[in-house]
Design goal:
four-stranded antiparallel beta sheet; 0% helix; 124 residues; single chain
Length: 124
């Protein structure tokens, strides 16, 4: 079956960096878009950024632009979210997702497969 498994979350202080990983398996994702979303407690799930499996098509939410970088490692079938200069408002559960490139890249409904999420907590 298709699986997306996130890892790398944890408790960090403001200003720290984290790199989240999402390992993909179960099918080829050639031609797919890989996205990162996050959800703070009591909040809706929001878009962080996305990348095509090929490594192009980078797109970031304004709220994180300049502080995050998404990349892929096709050999490892893994997508990464590098986050720098973390702020308390970055706290939340981070999810990776995969969807067809014809979908809405900034909305949850644009993605077909989802990981279980990994918690990121940024303290002041």
């Amino acid at each position: 079956q298709v699986q997306l498994i996130e890892s790398g979350g944890g408790l960090v202080q403001a200003g720290d960096s984290l790199r989240l990983s999402c390992a993909a398996s179960g099918r080829t994702f050639i031609g797919y878009r890989l996205g990162w979303f996050r959800q703070a407690p009591g909040k809706v799930r929001t878009f962080v950024g996305s990348i095509n499996w090929s490594g192009n098509g980078l797109y970031y939410a304004d709220s994180v632009k300049g502080r995050v970088s998404i990349s892929t490692d096709n050999a490892k079938k893994t997508i990464y979210l590098q986050m720098n200069s973390l702020k308390p408002e970055d706290t939340g559960v981070y999810y990776c997702a995969a969807g067809q490139r014809s979908g809405d890249r900034m909305e949850s409904h644009g993605y077909d497969y989802w990981g279980q999420g990994t918690q990121v907590t940024v303290s002041s």
